[in-house]
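Pasting as-is:
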Amino acid sequence: MAPTMEATRTRSAGTGVAMALVSAATFGSSGPFAKSLLDAGWSAGAAVLVRMGGAAVVLVVAATIGLRGRWRPTGRSVRTLVVFGTVAVAGAQLSFFNAVRTLDVGVALLLEFLAPVMLLAWTALRTRRRPNTPTLVGAGMTLVGLAFVLELGGASSVDPAGVAWGLLAALCLCGFFVMSARQDVAVPPVVMAAGGTAVGAVVVAIAGLVGLVPLAFSTEDAVLAGAQVSWLVPVLPLVLLSTVTAYLTGIGAVRRLGVRVASFVGLTEVLFAVVTAAVLVAQMPGLSQLAGGVLIVGGIVVIRRHEVAELPVAAA
């Protein structure tokens, strides 16, 4: 009986790691696709609205067909979906897309991926327990890395508004990890993704109608990989890959691995994003920013290393 249970846990963890990597790769592609739309005259709000609205249509249809009435919403689950859609979906996407308007995709992602450190700090404050020495060392590495990424000691300047948007995206990403891990409300991943994107689209649309978020669309051609293409070329993968696939696999990964391990594996999104940004929008980080990125990722690896031990060896 015990070996069977261990094998089941191993398979579940292995599936979770695979899902986390797929989620990281597809989420990481969103920045370049969004950047091409922004450069073509779209506002960040318009890009988020099309992304969330298109994904919501696909996911609602998938949830309706897949579940076939086997899930019934409750007041608690509806509240969870509303908060998830407002914070983890609309908030995170608007913040990140506004960040990439004035920051390179890689820099914006590195700011967003301070989320694991924020989660660690929140846990320490909530439990009133002092972090151990490796944790403090890792946190120090991330702060030094952040200074390099922002080039605080260099001659060039980084837009402070972009930095603020990037940090807000990190806070919203914390909400994504924490709320995706909740299983007490019994919301299937496909419903979580469908409800979250639908609520997110509604929130952005309302904000646009009342003038809080500019909604500027454009049918001008976009530029991807140095080629001029129709605006539909970045929109379709932004919806189907960077949203539908990313949210489904991301929520599934968090539920299999837990918040801490999933956030650790999710750091690979930075690597995927840097590669896709270099290929699709010709953005390469400078030497100091590259060094800062190494320090940030290295610091979070130090912080999370003991969490990897929770994964079965075969899955790791």
